[in-house]
Amino acid sequence: MARNPETDAAAIAIEAVVKRFRERGREVPALKALTATVQRGGVTGLIGPDGAGKTTLMRLIAGLLRPDSGRITVLGIDVRSDPLAVQGAIGYMPQRFGLYEDLTVRENLDLYADLHDVDPAERQARYAELLHMTGLAPFTARLAGKLSGGMKQKLGLACTLVRAPALLLLDEPTVGVDPVSRRELWQIIDTLTRTEGMTVLLSTAYLDEAERCRSVLLMHEGTLIGEGDPKQRTETMGGRSFHVDAEGTGRRRLQALLAGAPGVLDAVIQGSHVRIVTRPGATATVEALLPTLPGAQLVAVPPRFEDSFIDLLSEHGTAQAKMAPPPVDPVAAKDEQDEIVVEGLTRRFGDFYAVKDVSFRVRRGEIFGLLGANGAGKSTTFRMLCGLLPPSAGTLRVAGVDLRAAAAAARARIGYMAQRFSLYGDLSVMQNLRFISAAYGLGGQRQRDRISWALAEFELAALADATSRDLPLGYKQRLALAAALMHEPDILFLDEPTSGVDPLARREFWRRINGLAEAGVTVLVTTHFMEEAEYCDRLLIMAQGQVLAEGTSESVKARARSAALPEPTMEDAFIALVQAAIHPEIAA
Amino acid sequence: MSIRISRRLRGLVRKEFVQIRRDPSSLAIAFLLPALLLLLFGYGVSLDAYHVRVGVVVTQPTAETASFTSHLQHSPYFAPVALPDIQAAERAIGRREISAILWLREDFTRKLLASGGAPIGVMLDGVDANTARIVEGYLQQTWQTWLAARAAEVGQPVPGATISGALAVTGRVWFNPAVQSRDYLVPGLIAVIMTLTGALLTALVIAREWERGTLEALMVTPVSLREIIVSKLAPYFVLGMGGMAVSVAMAVWLFHVPLRGSFAVLVLAASLFMGAALGMGLLISSVARNQFVAGQIAIIVTFLPAFILSGFIFDIGSMPEPIRLFTYLVAARYFVAILQSVFLAGDVWSVILPNAAALVAMAAIFLGLARLVTRKRLD
Amino acid sequence: MFSRVLALIVKELLALLKDPKSRMVLIGPPLMQLIVFGYAATFDLNQVPFVVYNADTSAASRDLIAHFTGTPTFRLVARVDSLAQIPALIEGRKAVMALAIDARFTRDLLTGQPAPVEVIVDGRNSNTALIALGYANEILSDYAASWASQHGARTPSALVMRARYNPNLESRWFIIPGIIALLAQVVTLLVVALTVAREREAGTFDQLLVTPLRPVDILLGKGIPGLIIGLAEATVILLAAVFWFGVPLRGAVGVFYLGAVVFIIAVIGIGLLISALSATQQQALLGAFLFMVPSIILSGFATPIANMPQAVQWLTLINPLRYFLVVVRSVFLQAASLASLSTEIAAMAAIGCVSLVAATVMFRRRVY
After folding, report:
1. CA-based nearest distance B312→chain C, Å
2. pTM listed for this prediction
3. Are C215 and C222 spatial neighbours (Cβ–Cβ below 8 Å)?
4. Would the ipTM clear 0.85, i.e. be above it?
């Protein structure tokens, strides 16, 4: 095989790769003539929204798919001509790593050691190293299926590392993993690149993770829209990021005003502030941005990687189209009425307390966040609030109705958006809306009105007859929200409503939620994105089935403030709180 | 090189066995299901009719009619019910209380003693045609023995006057003299059961690996396709043969089906059939990558044909031509032929050799096809 | 309230018919089974291969053989010269039956001695053996009767056989009406048993539970599509039975549909019970399979219930298929009246009540 000195130097060289899939008779392009290189050493991030083609690219590199045209060279080997040699040299962890759940931790490791032909003599040392690194040493005899989500990811990683590969491919290793486990995974990856000199290609939808990479490849709809050092990219955004505060104007109202301002590219709520990114060349003064609010204050803040990503996407024309108008009719004063009252809520499964003695109240028009690590009991709490699971003890009043006494009456006032935007995939958008509205008892003119409202408000009219399974994720999310709002509920339950969708769709989603809250709808939301916790009026952090902290995001962050961390992020605060609860000795 | 391969393969096979041990459902399909099916069929399915309820209407009772009804009474096949008149009998047959009506009219005795040709009217309930045919046969037989017995009693007035005098028919059923349907159903059932463990289990297990994403993780290791295939075949071969052992043991010791041929032939034929069944399972799972579809396909293309088109219950020779030609594609057909011979007749090489050759060809075709369509890639 | 249930029914039917997997369940197996059972599953014998050993070369014995070769049931494959050749032919499955005519045949026939004829059948398939033997006996009786009448002899008695409802005793007339019942059960059970599990897997079940629909509404919404599809399936096969396979439909269609509705409701109850108890489609499929196989075998579909051991016969009393098979077959062949089938319909209704109540209880317990 002729060796090209230039491509040999790179760990991965991708040249004009095209890949199409056939789906229901249609050809769907996944990669459109993609060219990129991954240098040896360090972590290269493969960044892009859902559906950008990250997983397809990973599989092509690993030799699991064959490109329609183009060429991929991995560690100097042509993948198409010798996939086995490539597979022998790399480690690959798919998105859902196929752990054999009915095998123990040790048996999984043994299997992969056998498959990679690791000499039994070398295994003990390697296992010890890996188990130490992943913290799985105490669990070697446990079945993989009985591990928590984060531990499974770590075991998957350990399995791909049984024979230290020169190149490691990680496909969204941190998706669905709580912040604590996420941080631990990154520590392992850092160790690998530093001490073993491994090259890592890692794909992620979390933009904050990009900042940890040596370089990034930015993908969008099957093409490469940018690459390079994330720090450099972030720096180019200098002087365009600000915190805005305005006395007497609610932050959501402020955000809505800013989002509508012509010079503003991006406006998100961060704690009590609104963080904005201005358009290139726009004048960043209060007068230019907020002519109606002269008392507002503008404070320059350091840029972050996400700003540059939003900037880049807006250049590709996707950001503009999704801008929704700001809410028109905000309710002036907030009601002090409690819409959700939870007292002493407890749920037992046998001897195990999934939720123990949890109490909180949510006021009308409030956005209330429910946070917690995997297995902290937040899903169980959420399911009890929606009436999907009976509590073992405690009181639960939703919309003034005791959920145990009159579940059907309470449900008529609740809107619910499930994880993974669960819709009837075989039904069209229209059929889904028609069914859900009828299930809530809507009929006749009102049903027709609400359906046309939903189609217009969520820009779904053009897709009304499309099968909902085939919708892009962002549209699925819109449809799910539209379905939850058909009967104009007073209370909205959102279960991880933005997981997997790209940052732009996430912003648009939150803009709608803010508008609803302003209109007096009470919102209860669970999320893994710590940044989204900032959008909530108040938060509840759970660990081991109990309440760890409750309050505004500012007050939660304040609890984690220390000399070492004068300005903790929400994630820092979350990790500090959870670790203090689980391992009090470490925190002390 | 050979050592390298064997370590990977060993690892994979070991994994498969650990999984089988931990997952009760595959063990249940391999061992419990055969036992359950055998019990169900062994006890539930019987084509042998005993004590068939027949309505007897005697318009004018005499010693002669009594001789006939008592003959009927003593036959193990019939449970006669005396009915007053033909209307009552017709009502009874309409209500499915009796399977046939025997009517001895007022002229029966007169004709029997004088001119001959004394009529016995038989009305069969034709709804269940199969049972009706069997009842018809039993009646013929019973009637003939009655005539013979009568001839011996009264002596022959005219030579060749009776049917039994005309012909002395000896009916003999070889290999299964007691005509026990269980004796032929149980061996055939073993083929159906092994189809289930071989094809269905293999298809489900590989589809499960696709579904859970474990196969994707396997594929990026340096393991070769041949090793993956062999590691799937070997454990389920063992499991399938285990299921067969259970079935044979139950057949011989519980249902007392005679095993007249040699055990070695049985094992050898089963191994060949297992090869074909596993190949089919592998082929199905490479087409369907989720358990639901794989299960559906496996039932439609392997289980049902094994049941109906293998000659296990229904006679292949009597099927219409196109379907008869199609049965040549059903591996179970060859195995059923071998099983029924080895159990009931013995090592009949003229049956075993051609059918075994067909099984070799089927196994080669299915395994070859499976190898051809399985790729170490996702697309 | 009913408009909500109606919406659920419409949604359920749309989801079933648009999902290729469910479509496969609804169309694939029934079609396959109709063809296979309709054509292949027959106990009627055709072209049974037989060999002849004829030691008596006379017109009488040739006439006897002609009686056999003259029917489509038997096909002469070989004539052998010695009895010793027969075992190899039967063992090797070249022939299923052997007819051996002794050298004394004609002489005995003429002298009034019983003329010896031996019929040997392969008992490896005892059902085929019995039926073949029955046919042979019939032919031999015919032959003897005609020989006797030709030679002026008289027979003391004659067996006059007729079959009611199915004069030619075609097993297709028995099997195909049975398929209507069988497939109505298979399809209804699969549709209903998988429906909740499918929603659970897709995550839409929670969505359904948070709406103001009551558990009863959900059960109705899940059950009624099963009834519609089960009845549609039954109708299609009924038409195929009458117009394609030519099975006579002698009774009232109304009685058939009354029985079908009651039967399908009973099956829906069982399907909902399986549905309520299973968390995944896999489990639901397994549950459906575990109910279906015994219920078919112990229904009298292929083999008469009367042949089963007494304990097993009692077990069949809780099997709704057993009763519906009687209804279908009686309506088809016996032109049975509603009154004569009241016991069967009442039994199915009772099973339906019990299973529906059990399903509702289980469902409430599982979904809160």
Report:
1. 8
2. 0.81
3. no
4. no
